[in-house]
Design a protein that fits this description.
flat
């Protein structure tokens, strides 16, 4: 699995600006992730610790995990805003997608259940969450195919 072949992003105008891994703390430093990170498509996930966001390069299809987490204890403690980007192998991408899918499906089921109860307001983000599950499933299936798993 130590195969370090990265044909896909070579010559890709977006990926060439993104390092293999980069971590920045934006609250107390001027360090920022490269702006190319904003051009990546968001596939799913919240981007918090333990729930990294799946992103995909629209040009070459390389997957990334993206983190944007912050802790702002009002006046107490140091606080932080962490951001990180990491390029993923297809195997790692599949792992992250499956993990994210589990969380997203769970959340959709939770809100669906709430919605069924009278008087519960349908959260406007439920449709977005459903769309996210669909997107994650599409990417998962494509990756499984690529990896010869299906
Ligand atoms: Zn790319």
């Amino acid at each position: 699995m130590a195969k370090k072949e990265r044909k896909a992003e070579k010559g890709c105008s977006i990926c060439k600006g993104i390092p293999e891994y980069k971590f920045v703390e934006t609250l107390h430093t001027d360090e920022r992730l490269p702006e190319e990170v904003d051009q990546l498509l968001v596939i799913g996930g919240y981007g918090l610790y333990g729930c990294e966001q799946v992103r995909k390069c629209p040009e070459c299809g390389t997957f990334y995990s993206f983190l944007h987490d912050h802790d702002s204890e009002s006046g107490v403690g140091y606080g932080y805003t962490d951001e990180a980007i990491q390029r993923l192998t297809p195997e790692k991408a599949l792992d992250l997608i499956e993990k994210t899918l589990k969380t997203s499906k769970h959340d959709v089921a939770y809100w669906d259940e709430k919605r069924k109860k009278k008087g519960e307001i349908i959260p406007p983000f439920l449709d977005k969450m459903r769309a996210e599950v669909g997107l994650l499933e599409t990417e998962r299936d494509a990756l499984r195919k690529t990896l010869g798993l299906s």
